[in-house]
Amino acid sequence: MAGTELLERTGPIILVTHSQSGPLGWILGDAHPTLVKAIVALEPSGPPFQQAVFASTPTRVYGITDVPLAFDPPIKSVSDLSPVVVERTEHYTNIQQASPARCLPRLAQVPVLVVTSESGYHAVYDHCTVQFLRDAGVQVTHIRLEAIGIRGNGHMMFMERNSDEIARVVEGWISEDK
User: Fold this and answer.
1) pLDDT band for position 135 (50/70/90)?
2) What's the rounded Cα separation, in Å, for the pair 153 and 118?
3) What are phi and psi of 40, to 5 degrees?
4) Are 3 and 27 in contact (CB under 8 A)?
5) Is there a contact between 97 and 132 (Cβ–Cβ < 8 Å)?
6) For residue range 81-97, what is the model confidence (pLDDT) as tens digits?
7) Coil, strand, or helix at residue 87?
8) Percent of the chain surpassing pLDDT 70
């Protein structure tokens, strides 16, 4: 994968993803946990295992990616993840691994921040992605902007008037010890 080759050339990084690029963060973190020092995922693709915006069709067959990740115990087929519906609403279906969830030991070495805006379409289901990661042993901090007093943002939060305020929150998390 080109991203892996680039990472091997550049050395350690803090990776920022947004929306459809979200799975690339999980793939690179899983492939090179010693080179990906942290992942900041701004409303990453989700929820696990299916589309939620324009359709409700299956996707991300490995839960958070369409590319195999290093699960433990290892999987031979995507069906080994035994997806189960844990919650269904009019806006999304929360599908997770059956319990006990398989771990992602390499990705678990990478601290993750998931940032969710107040009014973006991810606001209703980003918690599903966070649950999948946590169940797989990944250390995730989930910040909902309205919960910390940053109001009115949508999916393109980094292009809005208060984007500097959001950047300070992200920088604060990164500087905690990444």
Assistant:
1) very high
2) 6
3) -105, 110
4) yes
5) yes
6) 999 999 998 888 999 99
7) strand
8) 98
Spatial contact of 123 and 134, defined as CB atoms under 8 Å apart: no
Q: What is the pLDDT of residue 85?
A: 96
164: which 2 tokens? 């500097």
Which amino acid type is present at position 165?
Answer: E
User: Where on the phi/psi map is residue 63: left (φ > 0), alpha (ψ -120 to 50), or beta?
Assistant: left
Measured in degrees and rounded to the nearest 5, phi and psi for residue 8 equal -65, -30
Residues assigned a catalytic role: 19
Identify whether the C-beta of residue 60 lies closer than 8 Å to the C-beta of residue 66.
yes
CB neighbours of residue 41 within 10 Å = 30
Is the separation of the CB atoms in 104 and 71 below 8 Å?
yes
Give the per-residue SS3 of 93-156: EEEECCCCCCECCCHHHCCEEEEECCCCHHHHCHHHHHHHHHHCCCCEEEEEHHHHCCCCCCCC
28-71 pLDDT, tens digit per residue, is 999 999 999 999 999 999 999 998 877 788 899 999 999 999 99
Q: Please report the DSSP string for 2-61 in residue order.
A: HHHHHHHHH-SEEEEEEETTHHHHHHHHHH-TTTEEEEEEEEES-STTB--SS---B--T
Token digits of residue 24: 């690339």
